[in-house]
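It is worth pausing here to work through a concrete case rather than discussing structure prediction in the abstract. The textbook approach is simple: state the sequence, then state the predicted structure, then interpret. We follow exactly that order.
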Amino acid sequence: MEERQPYGELYEDALPEAEGNNRSGVRGRRMRQHVGPVRQLRCRVSSRAVKASLVICSRNGARLLSEVIAAARTSLERAGDGELILVDSSSTDNTLSLMREAAMSPGITALTLTQIGVSRARNAGWALATGDVVLFTDDDIIVPPDWVEAMAAPIEAGCDATAGTVHLPGHLTESLAPRQREFLADTRSMNLGSPPRTIVSASMGLRRNLHDLGFRFDHRLDPGALGYMGDALFHLQLTEAGGRTQLVESVPVLHRFDEARLQPAMWAKRARRQGICEAWINHHWCHEAPTLGEWKAFLGAEVRMRRLPPGGDGESLDIVARAAAGRWWLAHRFSRRQYAHREVPARIR
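Step two, the predicted structure:
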């Protein structure tokens, strides 16, 4: 059984000193305290504070990374005052080489972590940021030129977070079921609402000093661990703490994912991970057990899966997710909870 760790100490590991030109002072110490071992840090950003910091995290994302970086730089330049922070999560392709090359330019930082995990990478970039606003996107996302400006404006006006919108390439929009598009982070299939019920890591912004209050992304929900929903848990915690999030629909980003993810086996894997992550959050953070209606849904999903193995349509993916959630809860219902009931590191308001 995994031992419960106090909130805010999830990422405290014994760290070697970072190689290269690390920043001195509070931000450098905070990064070493909360990120995990840093293998190499390359830094060419001035010590002055900037308006916005944009963090892009990647593991083996070299396929599109140069184009992603170019679009991010264009958006930062239009905003007028910002920095770009690139975080490599122990890639085995040439991701780090591309980041090092980009970091030769002023205003760009590149670092690599020895521990794999997008949440650790986001926390590292967040800790290093000097902007009052910290924006996040992914290594297969193309942001529009006015994205930084539009995403930062509500936070500068007093919000704690911004939730951007994500679109898929046009030729895929009509060929996929709504549930499939949701699994690919297409926010048009999520009905986010206003204020939004969640945020999506492909397009989100945070107040930098939320980090000072102890907020972190939980690495146990990363790909390679349980799989997904680290951003969803973060937003639940932020909302519980009194944080305000504003939906920004005017600057949708384009998700140019690897189309190998469209294979039937990948859909089923994604659905199972979705169900498990939802059950994990309900058990460990919400402290909620399944209702009688949910148990009936779990059992019904198990029966339908045995009679007819699900394909990739929306209904069958929901069946897979429900069955996976029920199995996880049965296996872990007596496990020690990793959070106190709806635990948050600090109250915002």
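Step three, interpretation. The first helix runs from residue 26 to 34. Confidence is low (pLDDT under 50) at residues 1-48.
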